[in-house]
User: Fold this.
Amino acid sequence: MPGGTEPLAAELRLALEVQRKWQPPVDLRLGPCRVTARSRQAAEVGGDLFDAVVLDDAVVAVLIGDVPGKGLQAAFMVPALLLLFRSEVKRGGGPAELLGRMNRVLAGLSAEGLTAVGVTLGIGLLDVQAGEMRYAGAGHPAPYLAMPGAEPRQLDSSSLPLGMNAEENYRETVFRFAPGERFVLYTDGIIEDAGPDGEMYGFDRLEAELADWAADVPAADWMERLLDSQESREAYRRDDRTLLVVEYTAGKAGRRTELRERSWRVPSVPGCERSVAVELAAMLREHWSESGRTDDIVTCVAEAVMNAAEHGNGFDETKTVTIQAHFGHAIMVCRVRDEGPGFDFAAKLAGGRAEVDNEYGRGWGLRLIDELTDYWMTTRDQHGFCVEMYFLSHHRQS
Amino acid sequence: MNSMLELNIVPFDAGLSVTLKGDLDQQAEQKIRSVLDWEDGLGEGRRYLILNLHEVNFINSAGMALLIRIARAGRKKGFHTFVCGASAHYQKLFRMVGLTEYVMLYPDDYAALQRIEALESGV
Assistant:
């Protein structure tokens, strides 16, 4: 048996080999969707991971992440996480739900080094027919939407990495690809890559590369060139560098016109939800009947409007409730906004089972919204408080 | 846009059959209470209340809470509450909020009356 440092070196070589087998370059096409990923490892075995999976010939799931540590720890954690992802993604649910389930598994491990730093992960689910992406991140660097000739736009996705808090809730961002748009995921090794003078590559350089990325340059070429340019700086690299790009290349312009939008503004008076409910129902029956969600949507919007008028605006007729409905091929988003301070939805959801008769019904509106929506969230800005509800069509494209 | 609630009450041997028409929402309570003060019971020893929602197009959480309050009062005053004619969507919502712990759901008046007959005959 060899002695000294040779066994360790052999194990690391084996680890590197294992990781490479699990992480081949991605070049996946499904209909108008194309996913490309490239990764270059640091001198040590690093912890970047990425994946792309086709689900039911209709959805492409993409993953990018970074596990803490190097060497054997990373080499074993990466395949384990990829297995967990592939197992969980087939069980269904949106990216936030997937992150939640994976988080609970990792938090349950209580692994030393994991609970302190956590695993950063980003998951995107692309509906290939509709060109709609749902993305959620867990402590991972915020992805970019990049359009040739335009400044890239960074999507907000702040949350804790996986494994640190079993109760962490993850938020989804939903968007529809515009013609020519690219969705770009990356690991922190890209940003933190240091030149010989120690200066980081940084977000500014990445954004400049994204803005200069011409429409006719394939994603693989753009990524290889960026990675080569970093390596030309001849620094010692301690971190893996990974890029993953989702492109939606066909049928985009026509689909965009399918997106419909309608908004209402009603005074905060009892019963103000009814006119919105009637008009929304008529619109959905005409344009989105195949979704099978009309009744759910109308109920949720009516409850949200009622809450906004009563609890948000205190039935003050001078204050208005604004309702926006956007729907496309596969998803509908409704936003109900009031001028109030907002509420603690966890406390509200806990209500509704009071033994006192006149307390009955308190919190039921939110309970119905929680049960009937595919996803919902609350936001606040300078204009007021907003309940945002997402509904997926139940209609499956043939 | 609100469709004010209308009620049609038809007594039968052991109870009352109430057909509601319009919206069942926060404004409905006053209207129902004006013709049926459920907290005093159904009167004349009646033990069954059938609420027919076949012509109710809109029910919100306040309307569902009202149905539960009626049914809970019924337990105290010794009458059973039956709800019929609710659409599949509203039946789903009733289950979500726990209304079915207090009322029995039937597709129509006839089915509810059959069940009442069975109860009366001790089946």
User: Anything to note?
Assistant: The interface with chain B takes residues 270-271, 273-275, 277-278, 295-296, 299, 302-303, 306, 352-353, 357-358, 360-361, 364-365, 367-368, 371 of chain A (CB under 8 Å). Residues 322 and 383 of chain A are 11 Å apart (CA to CA).
